[in-house]
Design brief:
The complex is a heterodimer of chains A (224) and B (211).
Chain A (H helix, E strand, L loop, with lengths): L2 H20 L3 H19 L3 H33 L2 H7 L4 H31 L6 H25 L5 H28 L4 H30 L2
Chain B lengths: L1 H10 L13 H27 L3 H33 L7 H22 L3 H32 L16 H43 L1
Helix pairs in contact in B: 2-3, 2-5, 2-6, 3-4, 3-5, 3-6, 4-5
Classes of the chains: A mainly alpha (224), B mainly alpha (211).
């Protein structure tokens, strides 16, 4: 294993330990995501027929909102505790910090999504523990994390940072949200891989493009 | 510019089917062209700034972003004025419309980011990063909107449908409009750069006097 990946994994492990021990972010985010789902239930009052149409949208709005909260915490914690300076002084490349924080956010969002599935399944009675859906969720979440890590590091230094992150983040990740919702539709109707292959390819392309662009531009965000 | 206005309102024949409202087309499309051109300038200025952080690259990107946002606002206002009588709806989620709206939102965020950044240097760096990511995102959004339309096949008469049926006078006025708007853009850009330079000088003078 090269030094680069060792640094990435060290940063990732630090974030995991922090979250596992304190559970400071995951608890409020989970409760928040659950509330979003409940509010949508009353906003749409989905009947069994309607539920297949609105369920993907509700699910991904909840995931996106929960994700943006998690992303904002990702760098806010570092900034408030003063550890961001330590991270920047550490003898590792900026790319290592980017990929470490990215993997942290990615895993965090995946855990939130997995924990949200059982209540969602119970409330809306739709099949979600399908391999198709899990793959879609992973691909989409990687896209969220790839873009979100840059904007999280950026917005943490701005005034009104809680508002700046979604304002920056949502327009850019809109293609992933479209893709995730569109791919989840056929899955809920028991569709096959071929129904969602186009969207999966599209989201993988998005992930690839923004992993490159974001990792290249991230170093300029962290400069002091 | 006056000549363009005269041509648009007095000279060019009124469209047979769409009527007087078709004239908005001579504002709408050139504004969109200038909007996209401006965001390309932002993209180039942003890359140049990150490669070589000289204030003039940031000034270029910043000025172009402001002007681009202005012209995209014109696009988004004139579009529904035309669409309502012709399509019967103010808005539809066609790929062009979706992309224009999201593009506008990205650059509103760009200007907000500049306003909320703690220092001038951070504003410049952050917005340069957004200028690059935002521009790369535009074709992806367009593609997503097309794919999404494929799944919801509702036929709408797009702005593209009119292209082939332009009368020669209309085509002339249209191209003249595009030219006028492009010249206007370059003029705005120069003006804004001058103002920006004055702002920078003023800020420097303030810092010097407060020391």
């Amino acid at each position: 294993m090269t030094n680069f990946w060792r640094a990435v994994l060290t940063i990732l492990w630090k974030d995991i330990l922090l979250e596992v021990r304190a559970k400071e972010t995951i608890t409020p985010v989970l409760v928040f995501a659950f509330l979003v789902v409940i509010i949508f239930n009353f906003a749409f009052e989905p009947t069994p027929l309607l539920v297949v149409t609105v369920a993907p949208g509700i699910l991904w709005v909840a995931f996106t909102f929960a994700g943006v909260l998690g992303l904002s915490r990702s760098f806010a914690v570092e900034k408030d505790k003063g550890s961001l300076d330590g991270l920047m002084l550490a003898p590792v490349g900026r790319e290592a910090i980017y990929f470490g924080k990215l993997l942290g956010s990615f895993l965090f969002m995946l855990v939130v999504e997995l924990l949200m599935l059982p209540p969602f399944l119970v409330l809306f009675n739709v099949p979600l523990f399908e391999p198709e859906f899990l793959i879609t969720a992973m691909v989409a979440t990687l896209g969220f994390a790839a873009v979100g890590t840059v904007f999280s590091a950026m917005s943490v230094n701005t005034r009104a940072r809680e508002i700046m992150l979604p304002v920056l983040f949502f327009p850019i990740v809109l293609p992933v949200i479209i893709g995730a919702v569109a791919a989840s539709g056929p899955i809920l109707e028991e569709g096959s891989w071929s129904d969602i292959a186009g969207w999966l390819q599209f989201m993988v392309a998005f992930d690839a493009i923004f992993l490159v662009v974001s990792s290249l531009t991230f170093q300029f965000v962290l400069e002091e | 510019m006056l000549a363009d206005l005269a041509l648009i309102f007095l000279w060019v024949p009124t469209d047979a089917t769409m009527g007087i409202v078709q004239r908005v087309f001579y504002f709408h499309v050139p504004s969109a062209w200038v909007g996209f051109l401006a965001f390309f300038v932002v993209f180039v200025g942003s890359i140049a700034y990150l490669v070589k952080p000289a204030p003039r690259w940031d000034a270029l990107a910043h000025s172009a972003a402001e002007i681009g946002t202005l012209f995209m606002t014109i696009v988004l206002i004139t579009g529904p004025i035309w669409a309502r009588p012709v399509w019967g709806v103010w808005w539809t989620w066609s790929p062009q419309l979706t992309t224009s709206l999201i593009l506008w939102l990205i650059y509103v965020a760009y200007l907000m980011l500049r306003a909320y950044a703690p220092t001038q240097q951070q504003a410049a760096r952050y917005s340069a990063v957004l200028g690059i990511i935002g521009f790369v995102d535009v074709p992806i959004i367009y593609f997503a909107a097309i794919l999404w339309r494929d799944i919801h096949p509702e036929k709408v008469v797009g702005p593209m449908a009119e292209r082939g049926s332009l009368a020669p006078e209309m085509l002339f006025v249209f191209l003249f409009s595009v030219l006028t708007f492009t010249v206007l853009f370059v003029m705005f850009l120069q003006q804004r750069l001058t103002v920006r330079r004055a702002e920078d000088t003023l800020a420097q003078a303030r810092r010097a006097s407060s020391r």
